[in-house]
Amino acid sequence: MSPINEEFLGAAFASSCNAVRKHLDGLNEGNDEFRLQHGLYNMLELAAYFLGAPFDALEGMRDNESGPADHWIMVGPDPRIATVRLSSAHALEELDARQETNADACVFCLPAEGNPWWRKYRNSKSEDLRENTAKLLAFILRKPSTLPAEICRLALGEETLTATARQARVRFKEDLARLTGLSEENFQSPGSICLPADFLVFGAIAERRLPREV
Fold first, then answer.
1. What global pTM score does this model have?
2. Could you count the other beta carbons within 10 Å of the beta carbon of residue 184?
3. Which of 16, 56, 124, 168 ranks highest by number of CB atoms within 10 Å?
């Protein structure tokens, strides 16, 4: 991409951010209950991700975290996709698209309500997925640089007992081995759990099912 195009895209993105900020400010002034994340903001997040633009330009537009919301995120090999919030319909649509364009990819979902599920192939039947296994998967993909000893505590919550965390790690390996046909050794690292380097998996996650980050 030429410097001229980069400059044009940067200016266009900044202009779009300003226009959306003014629009959302008007909505907020007219309705104090307007707290759900607006679709225009979601589109700007997606644009920032695909353009490689800094997310700093979006500061001040993110909605009140304490209100009720149906915020979802995608997780996958690139942890940056987890920075974009989506509606449930958009997240599930994106999940299907990722598996359709990546024949070797497995997908999973941790919905706002109900049982998590796993799908090995695009047209295969989904299978039930243990909730703690889904949370651990989501966190490993979302925060791949986390120290192994911290994975269970942060993915399952600060109050998780040591015995519970140990059991979750054992079941994680058992579940992934059963669902993929690989051996349990592929999903363990010294003192913790992991994913194989060549393992391709995407997830659609309702944020309310994950522990709030400190």
1. 0.71
2. 15
3. 168
